[in-house]
Description:
185 residues; mainly alpha; two-stranded antiparallel ribbon; 6 helices; elongated
Amino acid sequence: xxxxxxxxxxxxxxxxxxxxxxxxxxxxxxxxxxxxxxxxxxxxxxxxxxxxxxxxxxxxxxxxxxxxxxxxxxxxxxxxxxxxxxxxxxxxxxxxxxxxxxxxxxxxxxxxxxxxxxxxxxxxxxxxxxxxxxxxxxxxxxxxxxxxxxxxxxxxxxxxxxxxxxxxxxxxxxxxxxxxxxxxx
Length: 185
């Protein structure tokens, strides 16, 4: 099943369960808060552990790909030459930023707007996203970097094939020619 569809199914299921939780009871609310904080600590701890493992492996294999162009940014895209270590660290950095943003949003929703149900739902969704994270699958779960886990990672789309960087030789040589032409100008 597609990861996006799984997120929707888990969210809807968690919402139904959250309706039955008596958040009016201060003890229950404190347990849910503790559960949310514990899940975020686990998530960030695993991401930092993966970062440590990547630095420890120090895989200097060169990785070349043509990054997908962002329609909102005309300067995006183009040839990217990096190492597996640097690529994995950048992916972990993106995952950590997403986790920090989620914590900030939950702090706003819970502390300022007094919403309680999202604490329960986001605790579950955070753990599901941790399990789906490709660097976690490679470095913690020990899955080989093949298929969907082959670097550079492709981003799954709900509406069809996965989109992402191009790794074929023709795209890379074409991008190298563009870079060479820009340097000559």
